[in-house]
Amino acid sequence: MNGRMRFDLRPIQRGIKALAPQMKKSRRELAEEAARGFLKEVVAITPPASKGKRGSGAKKAGEGAIIADLARVMVSAARRKGVTLADPEEIHKRLRDPHTGRINPRNLQHPYPVDAAALRALKRQLLARVGELAAGWNAGAQKLGVKLPAWVARHGAKRSSAAVINTFRVFRIILTNAVKYVTNVESYDRRIQSAINIQGKKMQRRAEFLLTRALRQAGWK
């Protein structure tokens, strides 16, 4: 992550410990498997995702929020003599909440009249940015062979990084989301921890399933 967020990795560590005796894989292989699962989970719950909105549904929700926000504070108008048109980019920048990414109209009584072409250009620009926050995990996905949704992958890996340290003494996977506003996103640290917890629980459930199956095959009921 970009910033000083700290996370509890014990759920995944417990999952690896539980799975290791049940599978013909090393702990390093299981750690890579856990990292891949985490990446899928964290991207799935990254804004614009919300409760009940994941994948393509989250993308559509994000695009809809952008269109609705712009409509609340500005309206297309033709250029006419004596009519001053506001700059849509300036309005968006001034009214945007850095923690939520949403526009706060504050005490605005009427939408600002803006040039129609300039408004369309701003709308295209903002819609193209949907998925940018989740793209902070693209480098990790590329490194570990995880296929992410096209609307996330399209942003490339320039705002992310990943490294695998594999020595005799140390094995470590480092995933960094370097999107510049990531630490401003409200409660995003909780979403990341939630993704860690979900992946850890998945691994533990899998370990329980494999153990139960092995006991049944051995004649235990």
Summarize the structure.
This protein is mainly alpha-helical and 221 residues long. It has helices at residues 10-19, 27-44, 55-73, 88-95, 116-127, 138-144, 150-153, 188-217, and strands at residues 74-77, 112-115, 160-166, 171-177. The strands form two sheets. The chain has a two-stranded parallel ribbon with strand order 1-2. A two-stranded antiparallel ribbon has the order 3-4.
What's the helix and strand layout?
Elements: H1 10-19, H2 27-44, H3 55-73, E1 74-77, H4 88-95, E2 112-115, H5 116-127, H6 138-144, H7 150-153, E3 160-166, E4 171-177, H8 188-217
Parallel strand pairs: 1-2
Antiparallel strand pairs: 3-4
Helix pairs in contact: 1-2, 1-8, 2-8
Q: Please give the alpha-carbon distance between the first and last residues.
A: 46 Å
Order of helices and strands: HHHEHEHHHEEH
How much is the average pLDDT?
91
Helical amount: 40-55%
Q: Spans with pLDDT under 50 lasting ≥5 residues?
A: none
Give the number of domains. 2
Report the structural category.
Answer: mainly alpha
Morphology: elongated
Q: What is the C-alpha radius of gyration, as a whole number of Å?
A: 23 Å
Biggest β-sheet description:
2 strands, parallel
| Strand percent estimate | 5-15%
Largest sheet, order of strands side by side? Answer: 1-2
The overall strand count is 4
Number of helices: 8
Oligomer: single chain
